[in-house]
Structures are given as structure tokens and as C-alpha cells.
Specification:
heterodimer; A: alpha+beta; two-stranded antiparallel sheet; globular; B: alpha/beta; FAD/NAD(P)-binding domain; D-Amino Acid Oxidase, Chain A, domain 2; eight-stranded mixed sheet; 33% helix; binds flavin-adenine dinucleotide; binds iron/sulfur cluster
């Protein structure tokens, strides 16, 4: 399941982008996108210094 | 101004305008290559994503004479603290400039860009590479966007200098996922109105920053970059690096009354040198090639040194008309000859240090504080412990 991203907490720092093993996160100019390559491994939840990712619900 | 669908032609395209990219561009242009740097941010160097601590022992190597624009403070030494409060001080006069200074990273990055521009390199900011162009598997340039316009840059050689978040290496198929244990995830405030000894950079080891460390890098008498990095494999989502840093600050009275005037998030790889840093038509440099000191997480200086090698090599490869993977392997040999031994040695040392308990840190730093450390760097520190407390080194070796 894709993690949920709270963009209000995001600093656009790229820590999750460089860490995602599936290369599923992209830093665009002003926003961050998680694409369908995401395997739901959850690593980005731990890597984000701000806690901007959380477990995807529903 | 580029228009939709334009095609630009260059000898060398550098993707990423950090210190490694600008330095590669500087030496490529200096040696005759028509060079373009594209940087996705609107301002080179900003926002700052760095602790700004840097050795100044390399200035001659890169022929840099004027540091006034970006050294905010020269340090007289470094202090390393164990969790139990033991401290070892490393003095600049002994450390042979390893300690260095605290810099203004945004001004620094722009100065590195200026040096490249003076050699004739072109720059485009607010310009992102979105895809590599390939012909028969060989990288021949990149598709880029600038102010809503998409255009192509054709280049004989592409240099990927796009930092920790590097996509370029992945697009080129030079992809090694970094192990979570080799990623340090960081958070930092610039705190002002604090009480510090502003002539020392300070490192705090132990479980307050699991697998990493906390730092205080002074900017002036009352202001410092106060940050911390945690090993990703030790995070489980319940406590963020920011939470760890907030706790660290709370437990230091001199910092607690500080006011944040900046905050920085980011990650740095503290991994071993990569298996590969080239593919057909492309080479990687800086954080994108994982060339970062695994002990400190510092990547500016190694990126500059590797950038110089990359730039000189790029100009030569273009002049020779050889940008095939086979020829580009020479670049690997060049930078590895210069940098790889130390990176490996520090990686092994880091692997050991990561496993140390708080008690062990206390013992080691207590031991070091009694030694008369002359030239201090990672090697002499290890050697010092080995000499005086062989037992501890044995224990450390055993843990591997
Ligand atoms: C919190 C933190 C603290 C640190 N503290 C220190 C320190 O005190 N001392 C030290 O030596 N090192 C430190 N580092 C590491 C240091 O910041 C890096 O090693 C250094 O910035 C690497 O330089 P670089 O040129 O390789 O990459 P970067 O400086 O990261 O530059 C890469 C550039 O590429 C751009 N880019 C990325 N993708 C694209 C694209 N698709 N198209 C165009 N441009 C793109 C980025 O915007 C960026 O400007 C720290 C890192 C962090 C995260
Ligand atoms: S790690 Fe967190 S703060 Fe950084 S870009 Fe990713 S979501 Fe944003
Ligand atoms: S859950 Fe895993 S695969 Fe999905 S975006 Fe996060 S790190 Fe990448």
C-alpha cells in the first residue's frame, strides 16, 4: 500500500527520493509525487526527518 | 531564452549545480570543453542543506585563493563528546587544517559556480533534467524543462552531479540502492541566542543519535548550526530525526533558550565506494556517486576533489572522441586512485563505530582525552586507541 504523504510537513529535502528502493518518489519543483512503482515497503515513513509520510489507510 | 522543442548542443552537460557539479564544469571548461550546467533550483546553493562544517586543507589543490566570501568562522579545533560527558579536544594547530571552518554554504556554492563561469561554463538555473536521451543504449544528452518549456540538450558526455537524491544514475542504469544502515537521515536548526564556545565544532556520540551523531557548528558567538543524523535502519517511524534533535536541545541548557532561525532536513549516504560510476556516455560525481566520508557524512571536499578529476577527464574524453563506457572506466581509475582507500578505511571504521554502546564510547573518548594527539584524523584516532588500549580495539574488531 502506498504511504500517505502530508505535504504540509514536507521540506522538499529529497531524503526519501534518494532512499526509496523502488525509485518511486520524485521531487518536482514544488511538490513530491509517489508513483505506482511503490511497493509499499514503508522505508520512506522512517527516512523522512519530518515525519511527513504515514502508513496508507483504507 | 530556450523555446519549446529547442535542441542545444554541448560537449559536456553537467546535471546539478552543487559543489561537485560546478567544479567538474570548471575544469571541463578550463580544458576546452563547451560545457553547460543545469540546476533545478532557482538559486544555486539555496536553500542550504548542510551543516556547513568543512576542512580547508584542499584550497591549494583547487587553486582557490579568496575565501572571504564564504568562510563565516575559522575553528581552532573540534571537541568530541561521549554520552557520559567525556570529551576529547582536537586542536587545529595539530590537526593540519582537517578541522577547518564553518562556511556559508550558499555563498560557497555560488563561488564555485563563479569559478566555472569564469572558465567559460554556461549555467541554466530553474532547469530540471527529466529524462536521459539515449541512442543504442548510449547516453547522448538529456531532456530538460525550464519555465514550462521542454527542450533537449545534446552532449558528448553527461556528468550526473545531482546529489543524494540522484535520479540521473538510476536513469543511466548505474543503480545501487543504498542499504538503510548506510543512510544517515538528518535534521538541523540554526539556533541563535545560545551559549557556546564558538571556536570549536562539537560532535556528540551515542544513543542520543543512534548510529550517527549530533553536531554544533558555530556561525558566530551566539549562533550555530545544531543538527543530528540517525542511521535509517534504527528508525521505526515512531521517532523522527527532528524528535531526536528536539530532545538533544532540551537536554543542553546552553541550547535550550536558543531560537531557530532556519531549519534543514536531508539525508546523506555513508556507504562504501560504489561499484560503478560510469556508463556509456555518462559519469557520476559527488553525492550522486556516493563519494562522501562515511565517518563524518561530509561530502563537500571529496565532491570537489572528484569534481576536478571528472572535469579534466571529461575534456580529455571529448577531445579524444571517446565517451564509450570502456574509455570512461579510466575516470573510475583516476578518482579511485585518489579517494577510494580513505573512503573504504573510513567505511570500515564507521561500521565498527556504529556498533559501539554508550559505555564503550565513554571508554574510548576517556582514553583519547589522555593521549597527546598530534596530527588528528580518523586514522590517528584509531591508532591512538590501538596503542593505549589494545583491548578495546580487539573488542571492536571482534564485533565485526
Ligand atoms: C543535513 C546535512 C548536513 C550536512 N553537513 C555537511 C557538512 O557539515 N560538511 C560536509 O562536507 N558535508 C555535509 N553534508 C553533505 C553535503 O551537503 C553533500 O555531500 C554535498 O552537498 C554534495 O555535493 P554535490 O555537489 O555532490 O551535491 P548537491 O550539493 O546535493 O548538489 C546537487 C544539485 O543537483 C540539483 N539537482 C538534482 N536533481 C536535478 C535534476 N534532475 N536536474 C537539475 N538539477 C538537479 C540539486 O538541486 C542540487 O542543487 C550534509 C548533508 C546533509 C543532508
Ligand atoms: S524526506 Fe520528508 S521532508 Fe524530505 S522530501 Fe521526503 S517527504 Fe519531504
Ligand atoms: S513505501 Fe517504499 S517503495 Fe513506496 S514510496 Fe515509500 S520507500 Fe518507496
Amino acid at each position: 500500500m502506498k504511504p500517505e504523504l502530508n505535504l504540509d510537513k514536507c521540506m522538499r529535502c529529497g531524503a526519501c527520493v534518494g532512499s526509496c528502493p523502488a525509485n518511486a518518489i520524485f521531487l518536482k519543483e514544488y511538490t513530491l509525487e509517489v508513483n505506482d512503482d511503490c511497493t509499499g515497503c514503508g522505508l520512506c515513513i522512517n527516512v523522512c526527518p519530518m515525519g511527513a509520510f504515514s502508513k496508507g489507510g483504507k | 531564452m530556450v523555446k519549446q522543442g529547442d535542441i542545444l548542443e554541448y560537449d559536456v552537460l553537467v546535471i546539478g549545480g552543487g559543489p561537485a557539479g560546478s567544479t567538474a564544469a570548471r575544469y571541463a571548461a578550463k580544458n576546452g570543453a563547451k560545457t553547460l550546467v543545469i540546476e533545478k533550483r532557482q538559486e544555486i546553493g539555496s536553500p542550504v542543506r548542510c551543516g556547513e562544517g568543512m576542512s580547508l586543507a584542499w584550497l591549494d589543490e583547487l587553486d582557490i585563493k579568496d575565501t572571504t566570501k564564504w568562510v563565516s568562522r575559522y575553528m581552532s579545533g573540534a571537541r568530541i563528546y561521549s554520552p557520559g560527558g567525556y570529551m576529547v579536544e582536537i586542536n587545529e594547530e595539530y590537526a593540519g587544517n582537517e578541522v577547518g571552518g564553518v562556511i556559508e554554504r550558499d555563498a560557497f556554492d555560488r563561488d564555485m559556480a563563479r569559478l566555472a563561469a569564469e572558465e567559460g561554463a554556461h549555467f541554466m538555473v530553474k532547469t530540471s533534467a527529466v529524462e536521459l536521451l539515449k541512442e543504442d543504449g548510449k547516453v547522448v544528452g538529456a531532456k530538460a524543462t525550464h519555465l514550462g518549456k521542454e527542450f533537449e540538450i545534446h552532449a558528448k558526455l553527461v556528468i550526473g552531479a545531482d546529489g543524494f537524491e540522484s535520479q540521473v544514475g538510476r536513469w543511466a542504469g548505474i543503480y545501487e540502492a543504498i542499504k538503510p544502515k548506510d543512510i544517515m537521515t538528518c535534521f538541523q536548526y540554526r539556533l541563535t541566542n545560545i551559549d557556546i564556545d564558538a571556536d570549536f565544532v562539537n560532535f556528540f556520540m551515542g544513543s542520543g543519535a543512534p548510529g550517527g551523531y549530533a553536531w554544533i557548528f558555530p556561525k558566530d558567538e551566539k549562533t550555530a548550526n545544531v543538527g543530528l543524523g540517525v542511521q535509517l535502519s534504527r528508525l521505526d517511524g515512531s521517532k523522527t530525526p527532528k524528535d531526536y534533535l528536539d530532545d538533544f536541545i532540551d537536554s543542553h541548557p546552553g541550547l535550550k533558550k536558543g531560537k531557530p532561525i532556519d531549519m534543514v532536513a536531508g539525508a546523506v549516504s555513508v556507504t562504501h565506494p560504489p561499484e560503478r560510476s560510469v556508463a556509456d556516455g555518462i559519469i557520476l560525481v559527488g553525492d550522486a556517486s556516493r563519494v562522501v566520508d562515511p565517518i563524518t557524512g561530509g561530502g563537500i571536499v571529496s565532491g570537489l576533489k572528484q569534481g576536478k578529476i571528472a572535469g579534466e577527464f571529461a575534456a580529455e574524453a571529448v577531445a579524444e572522441g571517446r565517451t564509450d563506457a570502456e574509455y570512461l572506466k579510466r575516470y573510475e581509475t583516476l578518482w579511485r586512485d585518489k579517494l577510494e582507500n580513505k573512503l573504504w578505511r573510513n567505511y570500515m571504521a564507521k561500521e565498527k563505530a556504529m556498533e559501539l554502546s554508550d559505555k564503550m564510547f565513554d571508554k574510548i573518548i576517556d582514553a583519547l582525552s589522555e593521549l597527546d594527539l598530534k596530527k588528528v584524523n580518523v586514522e590517528t584516532v584509531l591508532e591512538g586507541v590501538r596503542k593505549k588500549y589494545p583491548g578495546i580495539m580487539e573488542e571492536i574488531e571482534k564485533m565485526l
